[in-house]
Amino acid sequence: MTSNADATMAEEPLDDAPATDDQSTAFPVDDGEIHSGVGVLDKTVKILDALESGPATLGQLVAATGLARPTAHRLAIALERHRFVLRDQHSRFALGSRFAELAAAAGEDRLLTAAGPILQTLLDRTGESAQIYRRQGDQRVCIAAVERASGLRDSIPVGAMLSMEAGSAAQILLAWEDSERLHQGLRRAKFSATKLASVRKRGWSESVNEREDGVCSISAPIRNASGQVIAAISISGPSGRMGNSPGRRYAPLVMAAGKYLTDALIKASAGR
User: Fold this and answer.
1) Partner residues linked to 135 by β-bridges
2) For the stretch 1-13, what's the b/e string if a residue is b when 16 or more beta carbons lie within 10 angstroms of its beta carbon?
3) Whole-model pTM?
4) 234: which strand partners?
5) Which of 197, 266, 205, 191 is nearest to 230 (CA)?
6) pLDDT (tens digit per residue) in 178-222
7) CB atoms within 10 A of CB 17
8) Do residues 261 and 233 lie in contact, with contact meaning Cβ atoms separated by under 8 Å?
9) What is the pLDDT of residues 30-62, one digit of tens each?
10) Among 115, 140, 220, 239, whose CB has the most other CB atoms within 10 angstroms?
């Protein structure tokens, strides 16, 4: 007896060739390529492999992969919707930001291992709460934090999800994004493209009463071995104590902390 699930699978071939004529799942093909037995997955990997060397037009993807033009186009569009692929300013396909997010998640353990002492040092030297944020879709999540033991403080617990529309950490996590995500992120942001250009130039960001009235913060990037910004390290506290221009006083300390963690990640990556 055939179950409904089996019948459904039989009716839905996993690639463009008729299911009844495709013997690739039964007999390995010795053509130098990896065959998983799932046709659509193998074809998708061909698209990504082709884009590894740089942006490509649809015609170039077809030539590089040997896929039919409609198939290459359909897979590239599907990958774009999931942010594994994006379009550059010339409408070429290129690898998307989702890979950086996954790489950041994969390296999070190494980052957290090094983060504790650095956050505590920031707290000791500035007297303000310190956090590390990572982008997660259209939000940012606090993955590590230390707080002042007493007095007025900005309390952000680990696991808290915050908006990407305001705050110095949001500026850092958006400033080095590709042009499409940068444009999308600025639509509702309380900061401007000009401000993000300044952030990229000086290597740190600040916000005063931007995320919340009476709160200010300073942030700097944490990068992986490839130079991609994977997280932001921050200090935050009441503007009455930190002042209206907190970057002048605290930016060198926060930038040094970000560089230390970046160097730690690079060393850990080289030692794998």
Assistant:
1) 140
2) eeeeeeeeeeeee
3) 0.64
4) 131, 219
5) 266
6) 888 899 899 999 999 999 999 999 999 999 999 889 999 999 999
7) 11
8) yes
9) 455 677 788 889 999 999 999 987 889 999 999
10) 220
Predicted confidence (pLDDT) per residue in 64-73, tens digit: 999 999 999 9
3-state secondary structure the chain: CCCHHHHHHHHCCCCCCCCCCCCCCCCCCCCCCCCCCCHHHHHHHHHHHHHCCCCECHHHHHHHHCCCHHHHHHHHHHHHHCCCEEECCCCCEEECCHHHHHHHHHCHHHHHHHHHHHHHHHHHHHCCEEEEEEEECCEEEEEEEECCCCCCCCCCCCCCEEECCCCHHHHHHHHCCCHHHHHHHHCCCCCCHHHHHHHHHHCCEEEECCCCCCEEEEEEEEECCCCCEEEEEEEEEEHHHHCCCHHHHHHHHHHHHHHHHHHHHHHHHHCC
Q: Which residues contact 120 (CB under 8 A, 6 or more apart)?
A: 130, 146
Q: What is the pLDDT of residue 6?
A: 44
Which residue has 């007896």 as its token pair? 1
